From TrEMBL:
Gene3D superfamilies: Dsl1p vesicle tethering complex, Tip20p subunit, domain D, Exocyst complex subunit Sec15 C-terminal domain, N-terminal subdomain. Pfam families: EXOC6_Sec15_N, Sec15_C. This is Exocyst complex component. It comes from the Eukaryota. GO terms for biological process: Golgi to plasma membrane transport; intracellular protein transport; vesicle tethering involved in exocytosis.
Amino acid sequence: MAEADIPECITEHERILQEIESTDTACVGPTLRSIYDDQPNAHKRFMEKLDTRIRNHDREIEKMCNFHHQGFVDAITELLKVRADAEKLMGQVTDTNRRLQEAGKEVTAQTEEVIRCRIQQRNMATTVEKLQLCIPGSLPLHRYYAALKTMEQLEKVYIPRVSQYRFCQIMAENLPKLREEIKDVSMSDLKDFLESIRKHSDKVGETAIRQAQQHRTFISTVAKQAGLDHYTKPVFSLNGRAHSHTPNGLLMDDGAGDEEDADDEILTAQDLVDFSPVYRCLHIYTVLGDRETFENYYRKQRKKQARLVLQPQANMHETVEGYRRYFNQIVGFFVVEDHVLHATQGLVTRAFTDELWNMALSKIIAVLRTHSSYCDDPDLVLELKNLIVIFADTLQGYGFPVSRLFDLLFEVRDQYNETLLKKWALVFREIFETDNYSPIPVETEEEYKVVVSRFPFHDAEIEKQSFPKKLPMSQSVPQIYSQVKEFIYASLKFSESLHRSSTEIDDMLRKSTNLLLTRTLSSCLQNLIKKPHIGLTELVQIIINTTHLEQACRYLEEFITNITNVSPETVHTTRLYGLSTFKDARHAAEGEIYTKLNQKIDEFIQLADYEWCMAESDGRASGYLMDLINFLRSTFQVFTHLPGKVAQTACMSACKHLSTSLMQMLLDSELKQISMGAIQQFNLDVMQCELFASSEPVPGFQGDTLQLAFIDLRQLLDLFMVWDWSTYLADYGQPNSKYLRVNPATALALLEKMKDTSKKNNIFSQFRKNDRDKQKLVETVVKQLRSLVNGMSS
């Protein structure tokens, strides 16, 4: 049992030793007490165990010391070395401290000097602060007038009291320099103001013009509501409200206290321009007794600026914005001058502003004349007119005379009309080029109403016809009529806002419309008629079109009357010249019809191929002549829509030209010989011409009027066919002669051609064989004809 307890005791001792090693010393007592409390003699075994543990720790300490001994020795050696260096450093620190103490004495002296300077500076600052209460220390704050008054007070009151001090003498000497400095500074501010006003004049002018437009709109609205006819000329202030000038030059604000408009106020000139530099500089120069110098300088600079403002940009005429900027700058300039005129006393005078305005007005008019002449766009010219009107109204509101500007508008109106005429010339040409020159087909009543709504057409017979039907004029007629009305509207736009009476506007509209009809439209019609591709059918349609346009002129008169409310019975009312325009065009078209018809006849005549030496005729008319007659028949059928006299004249002209051409063919100098057979063939062709004339290709001829066109040919051919020379010679010169229309020279020329043929081809051999007397008769006839011809020439 005792042996079994020994291991347990040993284990307990190990635990106690571990506890002693790991716990605090104050807690060891209870642990040791437990050794004595457990078993008798246990403490001995514990002591043995403790000794054993102590020996173990001693061995470990010894091992550790042996391990770190060399490092300890080395550390001691290093420490001995450091001690020597520490003694050396101590010596250096001591020396440095000594030298620092010596140097600090000089720094201390300098510090005392700095302290004395600081005290002087503080005293000086205090002195300056106190002096600023009485000398012009407010110059940077632009309180120049206060500074001048202070200097005057110093100079007259305070400096004499302390004149014995040197600083007072210095102040007295510097006061004139300060005055000059104030003058220079205020003049510099004025120059800045002049530069600023150049930059802002555009905006000032824009503001003033906008106010004028608003006022004019308001007055126009009130006048319309009240049924008034006049225009109130406004006067505008720089604060955006209308005002009037009192005799003392003050501004009386008509809109004062109007709080309702406060929210709608636009940016005003005073918001854009600070006039205080002008007032300040004027006051300073006045106080210093040099006001005249300032006035001369200000006026000279403003004249220079006026010349710069009046100089337009080279490309001003290209856009409306160029004109608008130009007008804005000018208005801004004179608005500022007007404000200075009324806000200062004598800086600028009314005579000076009038001189500036007269100079400016002459320059403006010259510039507008030059640049408006470059404008070829009517819309741009119209915009220019509107700008000139509002420009004139704005400056008139400030009291500047603008009558010359309204006179200039008449010149601009002529330029506007010229651009309109050029524009409408292109419109008319395009209409004529796209027209098909055929009657307008109308399929339904709606289409008919559309055409009638565009052109005043009324024809009872056509209205009775059922659909589809055709209107006699071509599509260009309603288009031309509509464009003339559009031109009148465009011309009317220029007359708006010119403050002209209805009679004057009516006169302007009628004159411009007359120019359109008599010059532009007439020229387009004349050029159209002369174009080579316009044929007879187109010419016929042009005549019909001009007839309907001529009839519509009275509706244009009514249209203008409805616009202007001026009765056409007024004494000085200008009449439209459309009737003469369309009559002239129609006469030109008729003449062109005659010309082209004759040219076509000549083309057929050129196809003639007679065999002039043929023995006898073919028994039928020539093919070219039958084609010519068929052409004439079809052509004259187209003339049914023409006025009767036109168709009759064209038919008569064609027959006469055909007769003349055939006569010239017989008498052609290059034709040397002609046989009786050729005469017979020629007679057949003339007979066809006479049959055509007697068939009444155009109704309205009385009796044989048309056949008389061929009477010269007929009598000449009958003379040769019948060989009735005895009758011709016997009755020559008698009014009832059978061959009255046969000229002896014509008969002689043709007989000579036949005589030459008989000599060469024995055409008259039968006469020589059967009756030689006939050959002698021919010789006799030739002689008698020659005597007649000679008698006529003598």
